[in-house]
Amino acid sequence: MSKKHKKFKPGKSKKSKSADKQLRETSTQDIITSMNYMLSILNDRGVRILNWDDKSKELGLIKMFKCKPYYAEGIVEPEEVQNE
């Protein structure tokens, strides 16, 4: 006899629902801090996040200024854009 498998149900698992709830309860400043941390790790790995419309600019630091988030752009050298 074959074992019955649970049917796949689209949607979020209990684990992802819990993570979603925790993230929604996290402060904006903490989320921005973790985004900057992830950007620094990606940068250490050589991954660059480029501006979709202007490939000569890359995403830099994200800062809170007067309760609003802003991002800084860095300039990418032309030969670096061609390689990516």
Task: Describe the overall structure.
This protein has a two-stranded antiparallel ribbon. With 84 residues, the chain is α+β, with helices and mostly antiparallel strands. It contains three helices and two strands; from the N terminus they run ααββα.
Task: Quickly describe the structure.
With 84 residues, this protein is α+β, with helices and mostly antiparallel strands. It contains three helices and two strands. It has a two-stranded antiparallel ribbon with strand order 1-2.
How many strand elements?
A: 2
Total helices: the number is 3
What is the rounded Rg? 20 Å
Main beta sheet, described? 2 strands, antiparallel
Query: How much strand?
Result: 15-25%
- Average pLDDT metric: 81
- The portion of residues assigned to helices is 40-55%
Shape label:
extended
- Write the element-wise H/E pattern from the N-terminal end onward: HHEEH
- Helix/strand-derived category reads alpha+beta
N→C terminal distance: 54 Å
Low-confidence stretches: none
For the largest sheet, list the strands in their spatial order.
1-2
Keyphrases for this structure?
84 residues, alpha+beta, two-stranded antiparallel sheet, 2 strands, 42% helix
Blueprint of the fold:
Blueprint: H1 14-25, H2 28-44, E1 57-65, E2 68-75, H3 78-83
